[in-house]
Amino acid sequence: MPEDRDWEVYKVPPTRTPVYERTTSVPNPATFFQTVFNYVVDAPVTFVREWIERQQNKNKFYYYHQKFRRVPDLSECLEGDYLCFFEAEAQWRRDRMVDQEIVEIVRERLGACKLREGPNQFQNCAKEVEQLAQVTKAYQDRYGDLGVHGNARTCLMKQKHRMMEERKAQANASQ
Fold first, then answer.
1. Does residue 151 fall inside a structural domain?
2. Containing domain of residue 164, as a range?
3. Is 68 part of any domain?
4. pLDDT above 70 coverage of the chain, percent
5. What's the CA gap between 29 and 31, in Å, rounded?
6. Is residue 10 one of the residues assigned to a domain?
C-alpha cells in the first residue's frame, strides 16, 4: 500500500467496541419467557427422553436378527396333533421365504457382476452363473409345481414321490 494514505477515506475502526448498557431496570420479557419455558417444558421433556434412552440402551433388542426355534417337520408330527401341523406349516413358510430371498440375492449378485464386467461377463461371472443355476435348481426341486397355494403337506408328498421315483430308477439300473 502506498505510504500516503488518506485517513478520511480509509477510516480506522475504533479500538474498543462500546458495551451495551441497560437504560431500564425492567427485565426483558423475551428472556423471562424463554427461561420459564426452558424450566417448565423443555427440561422435564429432555430429562424423560434421556431416561428412556438410557433404559433402552441397557436392554438392546435387535429386531432384524430374530431367530425362531426349529419345530418338528410335518413328517415328525403325530396324527391329530393340529398344533404341530400348524407350527410345521409356519416353519415351512419361513423356510420358503428364506429360500426365495437366497435366490433373489444370488440373482442380484449376478446382475451386479454383469453390470460391473460389461462385455467380459461370460468369463468373469461364470462362478455366479453356476451358483445361480444350483440355487435355482434346488429351489425348483423343493418348491416347483406347488403353485401359489402350496403348503408343507403337498411339498412333503412331492419329495416322497421324487424319492420313490429315484429308488425305482436305481432298482431298474441295478437289474
1. yes
2. 82-174
3. no
4. 87
5. 5
6. no
Residue of 111, 95, 165, 105 lying closest to 136 (CA atoms): 105
Own/partner contacts of 35-41, CB < 8 Å, gap of 24 or more, are none
Residue at 130: amino acid letter = E
The Cα–Cα gap between 35 and 42 comes to: 10
Cell 396324527 -> residue: 79
- pLDDT above 80 for 73: yes
Helix 126-143 and helix 152-174: axis angle, to 10°?
A: 100
**DSSP code at position 67:** -
First to last CA, the chain: 110
pLDDT at 137: 95
Query: Checking phi first, is residue 81 left (phi over 0); if not, alpha (psi -120 to 50) or beta?
Result: beta
- The answer to whether the pTM exceeds 0.90 is no
Instruction: Tell me if 58 is assigned to some domain.
Output: no
Q: Which alpha helices (H) appear in the chain, and where do they start and end?
A: 29-37, 43-58, 82-117, 121-124, 126-143, 152-174
Per-residue pLDDT tens digits for 123-169: 999 999 999 999 999 999 899 888 888 899 999 899 899 899 999 99
- CA gap 112, 45 in Å, rounded: 48
Distance CA 104, CA 106 (A): 6
Give the count of domains, the chain. 1
CB-CB contact of 153 with 74 (8 Å): yes
